[in-house]
Amino acid sequence: MNDPTLAPQWQKLVNHSNTIADLVTLFENNDRRTEDLLIDFEGVCFDYSKQLIDKSTKKLLIEFAEQMGLSDAIDKLISGYKVNTTENRPALHTALRLPKGASLIVDDIDVTKQVHQSLDSMAVIVERLTSGTWRGYSGKAIQDVVNIGVGGSDLGPLMTCMALSEWTGEEQITQEGLFYNCIETHFVSNMDGTQLDKLLSTLNPETTAFIISSKSFTTSDTLSNAQTALAWLSNNYDNEKSIKRNHFIGISANVKKMNAWGIHKANQLNLWDWVGGRFSMWSSIGLTVAIKIGMKNFNELLAGAHLMDKHFIETPFTDNIPVMMGLLAVWNSSFLDINAHAILPYDGRLKYFPNYLTQLEMESNGKSVNLKGQKITFNTCPILWGEVGSNAQHAFYQLLHQGTQEVACDFIAFINRYDEERQDIDQQLLLQHKLSLANCLAQSRVLAFGNEAVDLQEVCSAMSAMHKNYRGNQPSSTILIDKLSPKTLGMILAMYEHKVYVMSVMWGINPFDQWGVEIGKVMAKQLNDAIHQQSLDYDDSTNALLKRICNL
Ligand SMILES: O=P(O)(O)OC[C@H]1O[C@](O)(CO)[C@@H](O)[C@@H]1O
């Protein structure tokens, strides 16, 4: 069934949404609420008791999922069925983390074999770089690696390198018998060259390599940055062939384009059209991550994701974290009309996590047409944004507490952070971590219960109560994890990937295409020509702006 409004439980959920009590009442009415609405799985605790639901909401949502054929849809995803209907291909990111020895035959090909061959090729490159045997044009070992990519070819690896920077590659002994420290990794995505310009001024061309990460190898942002990098190297050494051989690695599903650009065969890593860009971090697109944290840790990341895949596939809906996350997101958006979702990690290492999720969720589910091509009549993906929670408290939490918008929030925190044995910091960092956890709990409490959570006497002593009114009733989930590690990060990322898929199944949409971004690319090409040719063939506004840009 594609149109969820035809499912018998849809109308029941609509009616039910008008009767749902506020969070204070929901907690008062059930003193076992958190037992009912919390799932623990392998060090990941998902507490959704502060969502605006009661027992019957959960029951109705699960029945709704059954009516929408969610079990069958999960089977189809995992087994390589062509779930990406508009592009007629599977979305097999789960195959990227299948263990060695597993087998998954799709169109007569064992994709697991392909995946592990690619991981082996990655391992060779990682080894050559981190052991110092990969040399630049002048014979010096490479010390800096710059990932040039955008969207899925940037956000996942960037976020993971930041999150796992404490798991940097192990020191190795080079052929000369020296210890070689971890390679520095950098990321460049901006089309305008700002990042690259600044970064290049700090790098040595003799010891810098570039990874051109682009599934399509046609993305103008990436290719223009790659050309600038090539020009920078060519200014320093006049032998393009040698530069390309020693300083450029290509990662793409488009081998023809990599060849045409001049990426040496031995420096090419492949992926497949069945890997969606925003789901590609587990493939060779994760090379920069593997360079940063080492292949062993990269494999741990994959193993964590695989563990979550198994949980998603095998666990009954009621105890299934991604399923419940997805159903709650659908409930908030389509039934409660809550169209904003804030991602609030209380850990600086997850700084780029909200950015990564904006693409994962909004590029996947920002759709208004169902699988049959019919217009949708309900709200789909909310607007997602976020920031490290404690920073956000001093930026946009005012709106969460007292604005007119309803916003659902995800609080994310790790129970354990710093090594208790560390002497150098005098326990101060441990105190900071506890302070951060306290803030996380405090904010979710005030958002849920408003005035009921604080001592109003004190707060309202001086000013009008209205200005100090905390309305509460903002729904949130808290994801509390034992500690951050490659494994738990893999679990969390896979958890959100599956949440996105669940939402799409419930809405009857295809989360694996992104036609909405294509027209902008075509139009940009035309306007680039217009700027170069100084032509004014557009609407009044665009022509007026072009005149100024071209000084006409
Ligand atoms: O890896 P590529 O092909 O350069 O694409 C980069 C990004 O551009 C998009 O296609 C959107 O324009 C994303 O889906 C993708 O992750």
UniProtKB/TrEMBL annotation:
Annotated GO biological processes are:
gluconeogenesis; glucose 6-phosphate metabolic process; glycolytic process
The keyword Cytoplasm is assigned to this record: yes
| Cellular-component GO terms for this entry | cytosol
PANTHER family of this UniProt entry? GLUCOSE-6-PHOSPHATE ISOMERASE
The Swiss-Prot or TrEMBL record describes its family as follows:
Belongs to the GPI family.
Q: What's a single GO MF annotation on this record?
A: glucose-6-phosphate isomerase activity
Checking Gene3D superfamilies in the record gives:
1.10.1390.10, Glucose-6-phosphate isomerase like protein, domain 1
This chain's protein is named Glucose-6-phosphate isomerase
The active site of this protein is located at E363, H394, K521
Q: Which InterPro entries match?
A: G6P_Isomerase, G6P_Isomerase_C, Phosphoglucose_isomerase_CS, SIS_dom_sf, SIS_PGI_1, SIS_PGI_2
Return the EC number: 5.3.1.9
Return the Pfam families for the record. PGI
Function, in words: Catalyzes the reversible isomerization of glucose-6-phosphate to fructose-6-phosphate.
| Biological source species | Psychrobacter nivimaris
| Pathway terms, separated by semicolons | Carbohydrate degradation; glycolysis; D-glyceraldehyde 3-phosphate and glycerone phosphate from D-glucose: step 2/4; Carbohydrate biosynthesis; gluconeogenesis
The reply on keyword Transit peptide is no
Highest rank taxon of the organism: Bacteria
